[in-house]
């Protein structure tokens, strides 16, 4: 279905990369189910919105049920929702741990289970998740243990999903960004954050969205962790 209308589910869709991903898939003519805690209803009849905490299994169920009720299928799941807390490892609280693992791991696990179950009925589908290049290339001065613990798990799960479902028409890939200009980062931090990349600047949200769209249109690519990180994965 690479060239026909698809039904795309996007988590963390109210702002930043998630919102831009929704726009990109709509420009391609696809129908979208967008979810986040604060998502607002859309006037576009080809966008369904579901507000809720993605860490809650009930939200995952409502999102997939809405996709089936409104559009009849689920072709692609974009696991974009995520939390990054940069703290020294010993300063993470129990609340930090619960929040990050809830969104990053539970938020991946429950909706991916439901989406893949639907994709099995269709004998086709694609799961693309957002990780972080810090999983593979830690940076001095950017404490990231909880990000690596959770997003690293998603990278490993992506490869496992790719192999488990390869013969059933379902692909799984991930995008591992560097530091991206998004609402997460104040403009006054951009110069310092850009200097952490070999290319000397931060990435744009469009860089990540283009990678997602590429992976979704590449039927021979599965199990790939695509680094879009200004060269960080190569060294520094």
Automatic annotation (TrEMBL):
SUPFAM superfamilies: NAD(P)-binding Rossmann-fold domains. The keyword Nucleotide-binding does not apply. It comes from the Bacteria. One of its GO terms (molecular function) is oxidoreductase activity. Its EC number is 1.1.1.391. Keywords: Oxidoreductase. InterPro entries: NAD(P)-bd_dom_sf, SDR_fam. Coiled coil: none annotated. Belongs to the short-chain dehydrogenases/reductases (SDR) family. This is 3-beta-hydroxycholanate 3-dehydrogenase (NAD(+)) 1. The lineage of its organism: Bacteria, Pseudomonadati, Pseudomonadota, Betaproteobacteria, Burkholderiales.
């Amino acid at each position: 279905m690479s060239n026909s209308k698809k039904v795309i589910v996007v988590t963390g869709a109210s702002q930043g990369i998630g919102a831009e991903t929704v726009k990109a898939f709509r420009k391609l003519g696809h129908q979208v189910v967008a979810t986040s805690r604060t998502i607002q209803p859309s006037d576009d009849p080809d966008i369904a919105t579901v507000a809720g905490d993605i860490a809650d299994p009930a939200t995952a169920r409502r999102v997939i049920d809405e996709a089936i009720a409104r559009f009849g299928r689920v072709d692609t799941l974009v696991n974009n929702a995520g939390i990054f807390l940069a703290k020294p490892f010993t300063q993470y609280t129990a609340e930090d741990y619960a929040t990050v693992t809830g969104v990053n791991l539970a938020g991946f696990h429950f909706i991916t289970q439901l989406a893949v179950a639907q994709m099995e009925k269709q004998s086709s589908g694609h799961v693309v998740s957002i990780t972080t290049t810090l999983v593979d290339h830690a940076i001095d001065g950017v404490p990231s243990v909880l990000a690596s613990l959770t997003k690293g798990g998603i990278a490993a799960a992506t490869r496992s999903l790719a192999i488990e479902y390869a013969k059933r028409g379902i692909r799984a890939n991930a995008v591992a960004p560097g530091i991206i200009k998004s609402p997460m980062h104040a403009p006054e931090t951009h110069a310092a954050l850009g200097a952490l990349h070999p290319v000397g600047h931060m990435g744009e949200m469009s860089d990540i969205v283009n990678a997602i769209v590429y992976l979704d249109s590449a039927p021979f690519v599965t199990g790939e962790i695509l680094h879009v990180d200004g060269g960080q994965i190569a060294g520094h």
